[in-house]
Amino acid sequence: MSTSSAGPPPPADGLLSAARRNLRELGHGLSHASHPSTPLLAGAPKLWQRLLPYIVVLALAATFIPVTITVLTSQYGVSGALAGALGVAQAAPLLMLAHRPLQAWWIIFPADVVGALVLLAQTSGRDEAWPWTPPGTVAYLFLLLAIGLRETRRTVIAVWAVTGGAGAVLHLIAPDRSSGSALLLTVLGAVVLVIGGAIRERGVAQRRLAEQETISEAERAQRTLLEERTRIARELHDVVAHHMSVITVQADSAPYRISGLPKAAEEEFTAIAAAARESLGEMRRLLSVLRSDGTEGDRAPQPGLDRLQQLAEATVRAGLPVDLSLSKELGEVPPAVDLSAYRIVQEALANVVRHAPGARTRVLVARDIDHLVVLVVNGPAAGRSSPLETSGTGHGLVGMRERVRLTGGTLGVGPLPDGGFRVAARIPLPPAGSPPASPPAPPPSEDL
């Protein structure tokens, strides 16, 4: 038995209800500004651009207040006091255009309507422009332009409709008066509002595009960082897997290399070998997760400091003069540090080839007490040269920083006064003479 309690579908939105809803939306647009009271061009980079709206509104108010008063008294025969009140009410709110154009409209529009009724009561000037005076019309167009630049399309339509409706009503009140200014303001107002709205929507689109580009740039930077960390983790996997393989081989061969082991010790070595072998399997699964789709693992041995001479020679053949200074007193270098130091030098040289072709470059790798120091310094570009690599080994400084961070070191990069660039890394090392983390052993036969 169906227990559905769904009632009949709601009735379709009729014409009258849609009209009422649209009228409510238009009324809300007229009564609520769509933007905070921040000045126009508040985010402009230059001071004169931020001050420009204030200069414009001051000029408008200083121009239209006296002009409106003069026109009302001389052409329409309005008394001085009344003309002064109407002139101030119709033009002084222009000072609000930089911050609150819609609120200025709330003052100017009623003042213009009151002014039209005052002019209707005058016995003189029946052939003068009515209901809107010439200075009132021009000032109102500036007001509409400010509204179009700041308000939404719904508010703009509402302002235009109310303005046109007021002109039509005033014409019906006095059909014998020349009401051409009402039609003129309606037509010109529509043009001005369309121009202001188009400029506003274009600015909104540009801001949204800039925001999207900022978000995209941040996402690209984050993706670059994650990709570089994944690549470094894949490389460090080989280092960890090597040590696990050494543990497995040593634990498996301990009963044969050491005679007289107790039974319990042999069982312990067997358990250690089994745990190490299981860890190797987990490492393989971890590597499959880190490896990107469609890519295969690098079967070549991971490079280290012993490959720097070959790297320097290859860079010289690419047209970049390189002076390599490799200290002979480095001592035992952990595999992770060995790999990181090589990659830092490799990426630094690749950057020189890409960004400063032909620049003479000095590479120094030395031991400073308990730190490995890697220094790559190049001068300004000395000419054009084809790049050593069409695709870099990583993501530039992002990869260098990640490698140094993972090994607990520090990295300093930056331009030099002569136009060159410097990369300096300090990576912690175990104390000189300390035993290695694991005795050397042949690599395991199983493929990692």
TrEMBL record:
Enzyme class: transferase
Transmembrane segments: 51-72, 78-97, 104-123, 129-149, 156-174, 180-199
InterPro entries documented for this protein: HATPase_C_sf, HATPase_dom, Sensor_HK_TwoCompSys, Sig_transdc_His_kin_sub3_dim/P
GO molecular function: kinase activity
Ranges of compositional bias, category Pro residues: 428-448
Enzyme nomenclature, EC number: 2.7.13.3
Stored Pfam families: HATPase_c, HisKA_3
Region called Disordered, residue ranges: 426-448
Catalytic activity from the UniProt record: ATP + protein L-histidine = ADP + protein N-phospho-L-histidine
Domain Histidine kinase/HSP90-like ATPase: 340-430
Keyword vocabulary terms for this entry: ATP-binding, Kinase, Membrane, Nucleotide-binding, Phosphoprotein, Transferase, Transmembrane, Transmembrane helix, Two-component regulatory system
Domain Signal transduction histidine kinase subgroup 3 dimerisation and phosphoacceptor: 228-293
Entry superkingdom: Bacteria
Gene3D superfamilies cross-referenced by the UniProt entry: 1.20.5.1930, Histidine kinase-like ATPase, C-terminal domain
Cross-referenced PANTHER family: NITRATE/NITRITE SENSOR PROTEIN NARX-RELATED, NITRATE_NITRITE SENSOR PROTEIN NARQ
Protein known as: histidine kinase
Lineage: Bacteria, Bacillati, Actinomycetota, Actinomycetes, Kitasatosporales
